[in-house]
Design goal:
Two copies of one chain form a homodimer. The first copy, chain A, has eleven helices and ten strands. The N and C termini of chain A lie far apart (56 Å). Chain A has a five-stranded parallel beta sheet with strand order 4-9-8-5-7, with helices on both faces. In chain A, strands 1-3-2 form a three-stranded antiparallel beta sheet. A two-stranded antiparallel sheet of chain A has the order 6-10. Helix content of chain A is 54%, strand content 17%. In chain A, helix 3 crosses helix 4 and helix 5 packs across helix 6. Chain A is an alpha/beta fold. At the A-B interface, helix 1, helix 2, helix 5 and helix 6 of A face helix 1, helix 2, helix 5 and helix 6 of B. Chain B binds a DNA duplex through helix 4.
Chain lengths: 221, 221
DNA sequence: CAATAAATCAAGCGATTACTTGAGTATATG
DNA sequence: CATATACTCAAGTAATCGCTTGATTTATTG
């Protein structure tokens, strides 16, 4: 029956999008691009794959409509096609973490035991920001901070954190955030700060999630 | 570096979930299960695949944590693992339809030209339901209506619709709904009703989306 | 306990995937 | 215009995927 063939083709098209995210390296690429646009070369470095392979993965993502590219001189710069794509990636991660037991194990292997790291939800952090009772630190690389950050946050990359820690009021609480829930930077920052006697917690998500939730941000002009 | 291996493993685990949805037949299965639980046999019938193949697809989905099963006599009944899974499927469909041009084409091939079918959003329908200025028809199979439907909706499967149409007040507007945005039943119902002079539109989504949005439903006791 | 129904398992196949390597193509720069 | 940089393309290979077929397991029923 032709109707069956048409239905199969439609669902195969839906599946195309999932298939594009159905590879760890492509998932990593989307995760990085959720922070902001990147050239093929930069992405290859971030995911530690050959340029040729990275390029092919990017084309696979582009065929599925998840990323777009533009030329900038000799470079080709890729970005996620829309916020919806980043939201889909976030939801996928969430489903995986609640339904696949192994994710917890693998996350622990990658990030270390995080039992000691206290977390703050976006809602709570927003309330504290409005009150002015919290110092927010963005511990991502400078470029990511520059292209957009939580409104009122200070840039504090890990290598400058020891210096900054000494300047911090011992009384006021600090919240660090970075790329997302599975990003190590904020964990490392919290540990470093607590070791120096600063009361520190981390945002349980990251900047892309904060922005998509419609919470206040400062964006690059 | 071990850290890289750990990161790769974590992202590969995330990708496992996407991979499970990265096949048209498995996507169809999730789409059906979003309506309610089904046995392997029933599912095989719905997606027109062999029982063996369907069983294998179900096991793939179960390994990815997307579905669960229970035994009921000689049958094994599968269901989506949680509402979050159905929501992920909905979002995937949405991303595909906004970012993959071919989805529009394939949907038209499967559903026919829908330009003539007027659509109502869930928000508008809810408002009209509260006012009592609309008749809502559930045009899904009896079993699906029985396991849960929009509160206040009448069951009106396509084969009974001609009879029911004659009883309808010509003045009051009718809204039909079924499984989701890509389900034919509501389209067919609208065409049938309009051909008989009844002002009919369709809900732009379906029952699972309505329920997940927290709108009023009647569930099986 | 035999017979039946429903599902799973195992083996096999052609097609696809993920990577590598090496060549080819744009674009910018001295 | 030659050279360098950044990316894409093409071909090859081992591994995986999607399906089929036929045997096997699990639970119910006469």
């Amino acid at each position: 029956m032709a109707e069956r063939a048409a239905k199969d083709a439609l669902f195969t098209a839906f599946a195309t999008v999932a298939k594009a995210l159905g590879n760890g390296r492509r998932a990593e690429i989307v995760d990085v691009l959720a922070q902001g646009e990147r050239s093929v070369d930069e992405l290859a470095g971030e995911i530690e794959q050959s340029v040729a392979n990275t390029s092919q993965h990017l084309q696979a993502l582009a065929r599925a409509g998840l990323v777009r590219s533009r030329r900038d001189g000799t470079r080709v710069v890729y970005r996620v096609a829309s916020d919806e794509v980043a939201a889909l990636w976030e939801m996928l991660r969430s489903v995986a973490s609640t339904h696949l037991a192994e994710v917890e194990v693998l996350a622990a292997a990658y990030l270390g035991d995080r039992g000691d790291i206290e977390r703050v939800s976006a809602g709570e952090l927003h309330a504290r920001l409005v009150d002015g009772t919290v110092t927010v630190l963005d511990v991502r690389p400078r470029r990511e901070y520059a292209s957009g950050h939580i409104r009122g946050a200070t840039h504090a990359p890990l290598d400058e954190l020891p210096r900054l820690a000494d300047e911090m009021t011992r009384g006021s609480e600090v919240v660090a955030y970075c790329r997302g829930p599975y990003c190590v930077y904020a964990d490392d920052a919290v540990r470093l700060l607590r070791a120096r006697g600063v009361a520190a917690r981390r945002l349980d998500t990251g900047f892309p999630e904060w922005r998509r939730a419609g919470l206040p941000v400062a964006l690059a002009g």
